[in-house]
């Protein structure tokens, strides 16, 4: 039996730089992983099975519709899976992709065949980056991955409990040919300099997502007004937003204040996992 953590994926930047003939968008995104996530428990079994527990278990499919189940099929290694669903679904921080990647890692840890980017891509554009779960510059549609060294970040994640459809957000994006990040990324001496630089970059999906779900704008305003905040931005196609703070304590204080004012929002303090 193995337990594999499925960390949330945060798109610190997300530039949409083009559109492929097959409808997939070309991206240039800095991705980090944090100490908040789902968990997969897996053990070898004659047939694949999946049970789901945790605060967001309700409504999560337990058959081939679930990416973790599909990942078990792709792995070629039958397992009985338990998914502890702690991340809100369809929320821009990778939940389903992280679960799928954790399932591929579980199969390998149990002695199954080696899983590659190509296997992961069969499960979705975000699964390859989640397979590594390391700070990465993601390009192409999610298939071109370059490891990066990032300073540690402390943040608050907020989801207004709105599920948002990724294809709808991409469809709402007016310009598909936005600037990429600089070809050579700068060297950041510390977290403050890095966060300052992040402020000069973007998430191109933030505006179209906020048109579909106005709650996103409300979350971003609340984060931008929270004490000691350095940067507030949406992750992925939303609706989860993150804000960066100077250290873990200031992030925890901001999270507590936000939770008091908005008891119905999902709010978590998170720190990036080491490089
Ligand atoms: O690959 P995945 O199933 O996660 O993608 C969900 C949807 O998001 C795709 O069907 C596509 O509409 C959109 N997408 C995209 N460009 C990407 C990644 C996803 O247009 N690079």
Automatic annotation (TrEMBL):
Specify the domain of life of the species encoding this protein.
Bacteria
Q: Does the keyword Transferase apply?
A: yes
Q: Which keywords does this chain's UniProt record carry?
A: ATP-binding, Isoprene biosynthesis, Kinase, Nucleotide-binding, Transferase
- Gene Ontology BP term (one): isopentenyl diphosphate biosynthetic process, methylerythritol 4-phosphate pathway
Domain GHMP kinase N-terminal, chain residue ranges per copy: 77-135
Binding residues for ATP, per the UniProt record? 88-98
Q: What is its EC number?
A: 2.7.1.148
Q: What protein am I looking at? A: 4-diphosphocytidyl-2-C-methyl-D-erythritol kinase
Q: Which organism is it from?
A: Pacificibacter marinus
Lineage of source species: Bacteria, Pseudomonadati, Pseudomonadota, Alphaproteobacteria, Rhodobacterales
